[in-house]
Amino acid sequence: MSQDGSPRLWLRFGRDRLTRVAVGFILLVLLMALFAPILSSSKATALVPYGPDDVSLVDRLQPPGRNHWLGTDELGRDLLARMIHGARVSMTVGTTATLIALCIGTLFGALAGFYRGVVDTLISRLIEIVLCFPFLFLLLAITALYRPSLWTVVLALGLTSWTTEARIIRGEFLRIREMEFAESARASGAGDARIMFRHLLPHAIGPVLVTASFGVASAILTESALSFLGFGIPLPTASWGGILSTADDHLTSAWWLPLFPGLLIFMTAAAFNVVGEGFRRALDPTMLE
Known about the structure:
Blueprint lengths: L6 H7 L3 H18 L1 H4 L39 H37 L1 H16 L2 H11 L4 H11 L2 H14 L3 H8 L4 H38 L10 H7 L9 H28 L6
Helix pairs in contact: 1-12, 2-4, 2-12, 4-5, 4-7, 4-8, 4-10, 6-7, 8-10, 9-10, 10-11, 10-12, 11-12
């Protein structure tokens, strides 16, 4: 797999039309999350003139229409407003949890691959212990022990999903630690930390970008599942999974409640997966031929 960090990498990444569409969709969701208070609020000047928690029992379970573009839920709250504000929760969980997992996995993987021997054995056993526990049940146990909140979910996801990054970084460090540039750094008197993070890590980070993209998609889906099961972001905070959980009692009478949030979750996760595949193809130019 190529470790080319030049602009040609980004040219190869952007060559595929589907990848460009996925990046555009992710940027749209990020902008929606960033400007949620402007796009949706109780002010008449907002694009969606409803707040995510504005209750109107007169308008409960209204189908998509002129006043409520995507309909309302069982409390008369505007579905589009809740989806816009739910984007902040989902993107925060996805990106932050993945960043935590990336930092932990990179540190452990770098130490295991660089020092080998006893350090490698201990870290490898730790990875195996974490992998022994079913991922979803481990998350449910952590979130059940502590008060459900946004940061409980973020930390639970980040602290349980770092093993893939650690194994990839470990393998890459084992492959490149004896290359000429690493030997040159040692000969120049560089310390272990400098060699690991200044010389080796930039050559090993490429495959991690692929798993990080897939990791964001997985974190968004997992947060939605936790919220759906009642162990995620507590109500009334708007989250995509929480919106789906309230739709459970109205699957036949209010089809818009599961359809639109479910479709948004699917499209966002699929977009991150497409971006991850785009990184993989860009790092391996033979796949583009």
